[in-house]
Amino acid sequence: MLDTLTKRTANPIVQAVLLIFAAVLIMLAGKAVGAIGLIKVGQTFPWMSAAAFLLFYAIVNSVYRFSPDRPKNYVLWSIVAFILLAAGNSAAAWLLSGLSIDQAGFYRWIYFTFFIGMLVFLSIVGMIQFLIGIMNEEERRMKQGEQMFGARQRRKKR
User: Fold this and answer.
1) pTM for the complete prediction?
2) 80-119 confidence digits (pLDDT tens)
3) Cα gap 77→146, rounded to integer Å
4) Number of domains making up the chain
């Protein structure tokens, strides 16, 4: 079951859509808790939730890049999905808070920072994959060299 879930959510667009729904649920839950009066929920809570899900996407999506089942052009689709997630979360936050991103305070900068952070995360993962590929190739060459060296030694003993 976990394999099926992992394969279905390996697509960045699917991840973004799922996180939009999750963010809206959290925003609605926050509004409901605030309306009931259990805790005081600020007017910018939907924007905070939207930003939190952007950061969550950036981290999880970077980890999914290690997956061998990832689709082609994964980085491109990750960036497109991040923009889709930012737009969807922003629309939901605007509708639920009544505030634009400018009126909500510093969330425009948070969005920008998380976007740059996602690019950095994806770059780090790509560099790690590149280095692992080099190490695997070197290990393969060394094993071939040992096999060739071992065959020469056996021929000399005869």
Assistant:
1) 0.79
2) 999 999 999 999 999 999 888 888 888 889 999 999 999 9
3) 42
4) 1
